Structure formats: structure tokens, C-alpha cells
Amino acid sequence: MAMRSSFLLSSRLIRPLAIGKKCVRCFHKHASTPSVPSPTPFVPDVETFLTLIGRGMAKHASKLPSWEKLFTLSSTELRDIGIEPTRQRRYLLRKREKFRNGVFGPGGDLEHVVDGTAQLRVVEVPLTPRDTTTDNQASGPSTSSATLSPGMRKVIINLPPDASEYTHDPSKPLKKFAHMKIHRGSMLSGPFLQPIKGTDNCAALLKVQEGMWEDKLGHKVDGGERRRAEVRAKKRSEERRKGTA
């Protein structure tokens, strides 16, 4: 009788564990596949993406044969294809998640790109009724200036790299480009811009470069925070030893 009761007790203890394990397996089996974002004109392929994020990730381009693989492989699968060490995989996972969420570095939101090169230019366009209302509320009627014609405003546009003229189309909304701004009235300002000669910094080219979107690593001083006290104590001890020698 005692043996039977002990058997029933042990079976009751084991049963919930078996059910829990089964539920975990089902959840893992039906986990949703991560979405694959569309390439952009500035980032059309795997090699360009890895070049932009820097940290030597471009050397792994041959291990990721397609855009879909880049955005669907898990950390374990990335390890299996040879992307090492762990911090490189974590960095790649973080950067691809940013891209998936539409968080781009310089150039990621450009539309007119040819062979990794795009042109940005500051031009004048007519004020819209909304702009006029905003100006009146802020500082009275809009007026002209040395760098601005009456009834106009300055905006940044994206053109193909060999274009020299722009025709404004009021039916198409103007787009704001991340990381780019107008400086001192008409000068183009932004990271990695290469000014075009003869434009007084009103136009510039933006080309794909290694590490344009890289998250820079910090520089450890005296061994970093965890070892700073130890390293500095050793330095002081060494200096005292040299002083008494």
C-alpha cells in the first residue's frame, strides 16, 4: 500500500513537468518568422549593408547569400555559418533590427541613387499655404532676404549624381532626409557629404563608405571601469619603485 501511494505521488509530480515541456515545444514550433524589409536604393544588397555598418562585417558577405538570409537567420545559425565572435553577431542582429524598423543612417532614406552615389542639393521652392500660415503665426508676413527670394523657402532635395537642374512638382510632397540640414541659410550640412565644386556648398554627393552607419566602440582608459583602480594602483607602485631605484 505504501509503495502504491508513493508511486501515485511521484506520477502526480512528474505529470505537470511533462505537460509544461510539451507546451514549450509547441510555442517554439509556431513562433512567427521575422519580417524581411525591402532593400532601399542606397542599401540594395547584403554587401552594401555590411559595408555601411562597419566593424569589418563586410568580410562575411559571402556567408550570407541573400537579403532574406541576412534578416531571418538566428544567432545560432549565424554562428554555424562562421560569423564570430559573439559580439559581432550581436552587433549584426542589432543593426539589422534597426533597419527592419526603418532606423537608417545617412543616405538610407534617399530615393535617387546610382552605383552607391546620390546627390543632395539645396533649392528654393514656392511657399505653400500651410507654410505661409506658420510664418504669419510665428513672425508676421514672410519677407525676402539676401539668400531667399520672396514667397520662397529653402529645402533639401535628392537628385541623381549627374543631375544639375531641378524642376519643382507641387503635386509631389517634399521629403525630409534624416541627418541632413540647411546651414547658414543655403549651405548643405550633414555627415559624409562631399561638396560639389562651384556650388558654394549648396550641393554635395553622398557615397557608400565603410562604416558610415557604424556604432563606434568606446575607448577604455586604464583598463576600463572594472579594472581602472587596479591598473592605476599598479602604475603608482611602478612609479614609486622607479623613484627609489
TrEMBL record:
A Pfam family this chain is assigned to: SAM_Ribosomal_mS41
One CC-aspect GO term = mitochondrion
Question: At the top level of its lineage, which domain of life is listed?
Answer: Eukaryota
Q: Which UniProt keywords apply?
A: Mitochondrion
Q: Report the subcellular localization.
A: Mitochondrion
Q: Where is the Small ribosomal subunit protein mS41 SAM domain?
A: 46-102
Which InterPro entries does the entry mention? Answer: Ribosomal_mS41, SAM_Ribosomal_mS41
Tell me yes or no: is ATP-binding among this UniProt entry's keywords.
no
Coiled-coil ranges from the UniProt annotation:
none
Residue spans of biased composition, Polar residues class: 130-148
| Region Disordered: start-end pairs | 128-149, 216-245
Mitochondrion recorded as keyword: yes
The similarity annotation says: Belongs to the mitochondrion-specific ribosomal protein mS41 family.
Question: Mind telling me what this protein is named?
Answer: Small ribosomal subunit protein mS41
- Organism of origin is Aspergillus arachidicola
